[in-house]
Design brief:
With 215 residues, the chain is α/β, with parallel strands linked by helices. It is built from 7 helices and 8 strands. The protein is 35% helix and 13% strand. A 6-stranded mixed β-sheet has the order 1-5-2-6-8-7. A two-stranded antiparallel sheet has the order 3-4. Strand 7 and strand 8 form a beta hairpin. The model has no long low-confidence stretch (mean pLDDT 97).
């Protein structure tokens, strides 16, 4: 099977994203400012796919969803339902670990205004496809938002129109894999009421029920 494919530390596949990383590195030299790789073991049964690193979140800390509001909500829910251990403190050295769960982003580099282009999303898809192919026990993929949803389907070579995104939806993919949908747990979505804490809790609770006890 080989090793999972990851971007080069100074990946230049997307020139705009590379230039943005370099600009941030000049302004914030103590930040991570590099492609953010996955967090969690590759033998997990649950893979969570987000959009891209947040500027002051994962781009600063180097761990997906770490250091911003989205991470506070996500990791809190994962801990509540047994997918995480320890105390999440928004730092990569906080000792928090995932249990039967892995987290990755559809786009590995922080994009300006949190908006990757279609070309950037498609270029980075090779790394998501590699992640998926290197998880032998994978049963459920949770897509946080439409972009992540479409990226997962593209990685599997599936037609997106056959699997419409809808918060709370569960799609049966070939080979028995399930694709679950949720609105992204961003501050914008929670502030506008598009996603409430209870809505997100229902999603994570449902995944725990489907998987049963930690495997």
């Amino acid at each position: 099977m080989g090793l999972v494919a990851v971007p080069d530390p100074d990946c230049g596949l997307c020139p705009r994203l590379r230039a943005f990383r370099h600009a941030n590195a000049r302004q914030f030299p103590d930040w991570f400012n590099a492609p953010v790789t996955a967090f969690g073991d590759d033998d997990a049964r649950l893979l969570i796919v987000g959009l891209a690193p947040g500027l002051r979140g994962a781009n600063r800390t180097g761990r997906p969803f770490t250091g911003d509001y989205a991470g506070d909500l996500l990791y809190g829910m994962l801990h509540e339902f047994g997918f995480g251990r320890g105390h999440y403190a928004g730092r990569p050295d906080d000792g928090f670990s995932l249990s039967d769960c892995r987290i990755v982003n559809a786009v590995r580099c922080v994009p300006p205004e949190n908006r990757p282009t279609t070309r950037e999303i498609n270029t980075c898809n090779r790394f998501l496809a590699s992640e998926l192919s290197h998880m032998p026990r994978l049963r459920i993929v949770l897509a946080l938002g439409l972009i992540a949803h479409k990226a997962v389907l593209r990685a599997f070579g599936l037609v997106a129109a056959r699997y419409p995104f809808r918060h709370g939806a569960i799609h049966a993919l070939p080979d028995g894999l399930l694709l679950a949908d949720s609105y992204h747990c961003s501050r914008y979505n929670t502030n506008t009421g598009r996603l409430t804490e209870e809505m997100f809790r229902d999603v994570i609770s449902g995944l725990r029920n489907r998987l049963g006890d930690a495997g």
